[in-house]
Amino acid sequence: MSMSLAIFSMLLLSGMLGLWIVRIQPMLGFTTLSGAGCWLMLGLAFWIIVTSLEIWCGENHSHSWISRAHYLSITLMLSPLVSVLGAKRPGIRVWNVFVVIPMLLMLNWPLIAELLGTPPNLSLNLEPPALMGVIVVLLMVLGNYFGTRLTLPAMMYCLAMAIALSTCSESLPVPYRSPLLVRALSGMLVGCSLFLMLSRMKRAAFERRSYEGIWLDFRDWFGILWTRRVMERLNQTAESENWRVRLSLEGFVWEDELTEAQRQETLKKMDRAFRWIFRRFVDEEWIDERLQRSETEVSPDITAGPVQID
Fold it and tell me: pTM, whole model, 2 decimals?
């Protein structure tokens, strides 16, 4: 059973990686999330490779490096969500170099220390301080997506990391005795979370229109932390320019009894502000594509033709 689930997990993750490379990553090129997408592809590829090697070696053929390689894949899978926290121009490259990579070095310091010393013969057993570092990062990145359309996928993703982490330390309870089974279940949960994320964002592309669609898409992709900061800037602009609308985390809040002329005037002012403030995060094409949704219909089926998901 463990071997069959591990093979299924590997195939599921391989399919999601292929979908991401072909359909999603090119669209992220219009945003500052392209770096996060690259980290995700790296983490998925490494996870798939380690799982393949573990399947090839067999469940009863224990290797000390397998648990360490899986721990490295867990930390790599955290990198996309940490990269999102710094996804603003012009500092996104600096963030990845001076925040994401040092975080990886810090979380993997137990592995580095072992490499510098005597090569271990036993499976990895992280001490509580090392575990706390991973758990803090998990909680931090998970909180960024609470209140968005991606809350459930983010919870599933982080839960998968926590389940996989249980095989790396004797301090954590392990759901099953077989590490291969636990890692297979966590890999399946990762694949399901990514599929759910893509399906929800595809449905959002079908339902959302105009500037409110831009705002809600930004909230769902960049998370609550960036949304609150941008919302504060936009509402300050709205007050100074006498807009007839205010922005909230749930969408637009229009004034009552507006005429069509007042609404159109506000939308013109909003267009200038949106393009000016969002230039730090997305290209003009990202905004224009969402404004065109009012004129075209998009199928909610993610297996249909190409769609821009940014």
Answer: 0.89
